[in-house]
Amino acid sequence: MSEEKTLVDTTEIDTRWGDQDKYGHINNTVYFRFVEEARVQWFEKLGYGVDGSGDGPIILKTGATFLKELNYPTRIQVKSYAGTPGNSSLPMYHEIIDSEDGSVYCTAYVTVVWYDHSSKSSMRLPDSLREHIAQLDKNPSV
């Protein structure tokens, strides 16, 4: 059974020449950077800090499925989806797609945990984040 997902954000990113590896395509580790950049931009748009102070999101688990070779130069979109929030965690799913033709290069997942940097422990996801996701689920517009 697959989890319900809510589209929460779409981020445009240009591949860079330096993202290529010896095989002449974008290195698989860079896909994780694309997903990270999209996630960080989304959290920052919502006003949540990612600077390691106070509280904020950290990564518990991540993975990806590489579906198609990605080359330079290409403009991509990273579509970010939120799964069902847990107490302190939020599953997120990402698609890296070609901005022009919609080809899917990669799907990825991340488990985000809300973390209190001063106490060095997980904490409940902010209610405002839960409410934002619930509102997007009711009225998708991303």
From TrEMBL:
Write out the GO MF terms: fatty acyl-CoA hydrolase activity
Q: What is this protein called?
A: Thioesterase superfamily protein
